Amino acid sequence: MTGGRRRLALAAVAGAAALLAACSGGGTSSVPATDASPAPRPSPAAAGDALPGMPPVTDPHDVYADAGANMLSDAAKAAKPLVYVPHTKSGEVRVIDPTTFAVVGTYRLGGELQHVVPSWDMRTLYATDDILNKVVPFDPVTGEPGPAIPVQDPYNMYFTPDGSTAISVAEAQKRLVFYDPHTWAQQGDLPIPDCAGIDHADFTPDGRTAVFTCEFAGRVAVVDVANRTLLRTIDMPTRNTHMGPQDIKLAPDGSVFYVADHDQNGLWVLDGAATRVLREIPTGHGAHGLYLSRDATRLFVTNRHEGSISVLDAYTGALITTWHIPGGGSPDMGNVTADGSQLWLSGRYDREVYVLSTTDGSLIRKIDVGNGPHGLCVWPQPGRYSLGHTGITR
Description:
mainly beta
């Protein structure tokens, strides 16, 4: 969140803080931070238990097994390898050639551009603009934008695992807005008034449950995907409401969700059924974005106010190492290249993009960009389908 929208949202949260502290009922649970019990490993769900129409999970131990290195769909193979960088401050998308690291296109679209989001079928990329209430489609074959599409407050955007629905994460409106991803006709919405700063999401292996982070409420919201209903909210053991829960990522075996908490300087670990917080993992100052290595064995955590990336075991959450960007920086959002060799990240507060080796974290390149680079998208990505954000593929 940036600019005036962030100040308005923070003011609203401050005004409601006493009420939220006094009234935590209505499906909200709070869990002691001392609970360090290991996460239960779920048994593989029967095929009939999955969300109808969702491509089946082929390896219960790794839901990302079909998104390994260079496992490109036909649609992804047709794409020109490019990196798309939306800017919240300068209202533009800059397009970078990942081979030469040169900016090869600058598209001034106006508004406050937050994320570049791959569609479920991987045939279109969408730049989301939550100020002008639009998404701008990019053709990944040419790397060029098309006419804007009206969408309500698309701070972020996701797709249901069956591909039937696009979900606009309407942060300022505290609701989810559902659209037909082909016609962009609105299908309905789900207000979540207790989820101030609704932000990022991920889905259970069966595709039936989504968990959305609530940055300014210090909690997450758990949603029934098929019925479009709120199941419950779960308070974090420490409720940070300035810049609290941010990105969220499902562990490869579906046993837990990792939730980055910017002001907690680390991760909360939610059980795989999204019912309670199990434990906390300290990482670094300003924990923000979560990305998996291409073989799904390592989890990269961007520490935005520390200029570092914590590398964790994706299954256990154990810290493996920490990479520091030479000269510092503000690593935010991005992704790993299709071959898995590089991690690309926007430098949110420094007008730059970082390219790191996923082997040892060494800095390959810093690239100057515009003002406020945010939800950077590396394209193409491996996988059968996209769940949205900057390229969550399975």
